Amino acid sequence: MTVRFITLGLVGALLTLAGCDRPADLAHGQSLYGVCAGCHKLRENWTGPQHCWLVGRSAGTVPGFVYSQAVKESGLTWDEKTLDQFLTMPLSFLPGTKMGFIGYRDKKDRTDLIAYLKTHTADPQACAGIDKPL
Ligand code: HEC
Hints:
Elements: H1 2-17, H2 26-36, H3 69-72, H4 80-88, H5 90-93, H6 107-120
Heme C (HEC) binds near residues 39, 62 and 71.
């Protein structure tokens, strides 16, 4: 019995460490997105490329936006993992990127932000009429 409780305790501690103990906080993600919104709009290219249909698209493919070589030739597809890597420290992950954002170092911040990005950038109404890039 004791061994079982200890095992359960250990599993719980590991899950907590891995950040699996809480669902993503979308409201927190939205507030973190405020920084991104200084350069990105959903439907239009601005300082950065438009964000509609971001998750699932290939890096560097929004028509009309002039990307750095670093992003264009990265061969990445934006998904939870690559966004997590990029947004931790953009310049270290893709040296030469012209995205002037220092990064969110806290894993929980990135989890919340990426969860928000997944819904916000794929809002069928807000993104209606915008072609999904490849
Ligand atoms: C200071 C302006 C600025 C801020 C702030 C900023 N970005 Fe960017 N972002 C850019 C620019 C410029 C690019 C194009 C990068 C390149 O070509 O190297 C870019 C590119 C990207 C890309 C690649 C898109 C593609 O089409 O391949 C993603 C993803 C992205 N930004 C997400 C974010 C998120 C999420 C945030 C908020 C945490 C953010 N950005 C904050 C300017 C910014």
